[in-house]
Fold:
Amino acid sequence: MGDIQLVDAHCHLDELERRGMPAAEAISAAAAAGVLQMVTSGDSPAENQRARELAETYPGVYFTPGWHPSNGRAPSSAERRELRDLLDHPRAVGLGEVGLDYHRRDGGTIWDPGAQRGLLREMLELAAEAGKPVVIHQRDAGGDLLEVLDASPRVPTMLHCFSGGGEFAKAAVSRKLHCSFAGNLTFGSAADLREAVLAVPPALLLLETDSPFLAPHPVRGRLCHPALVRLTASWLASHLGVGLELVAERSSYTARAFFQLPSP
Ligand SMILES: [Zn+2]
Structure:
């Protein structure tokens, strides 16, 4: 086993709490697995505040306040001010989740794509102004996402829960976008992700759980929590034919550099 160290680059500790796992429990399970640092992300004003509280409480927890496209509307001016203020918090290591989601669930509707793109542009400007990186959510919107990024101020950008194949990964890498892979990388059905991960160099590759979602093989379908990033790291090590130590060391180094985290 050795004493490896890992970073969970993206999780939702508040949602994990709502599903019955207290943050303290998740954090001690993570520490036992060598996961000493994690970034918990907010999607809405209430979640952003809870993420802030958790980051103020636990030394290994950092947060990113965000505004998910599934809110179905743009933030009000008061909500924008709150986001801007949270970004200046010393434990806030980026802005997100923000992004584009064109996926229709069960024949439902999606928020107007033009409005989504407009808000994303504003969010990229906000991050640039605050001097913090951006955590992007995208679903079924890869082409539009690259267009918006190409036309916006350059800020360090991470594609969280990377989705897409080798071509999209190459397009992301050529733009120096960081790609963060979640537990679905380990699913038997994820041929596209297996191909994509080979196109991403270590300096741009992060690992995350997106807890409480997407628990990796062999615990797929169960509640996901930050300790399980170790299973994804082990899976990737065997996919690449290298040791877990190397994957842990490189992905943690990249995560710390991206979010400017201190050594744990
Ligand atoms: Zn997420």
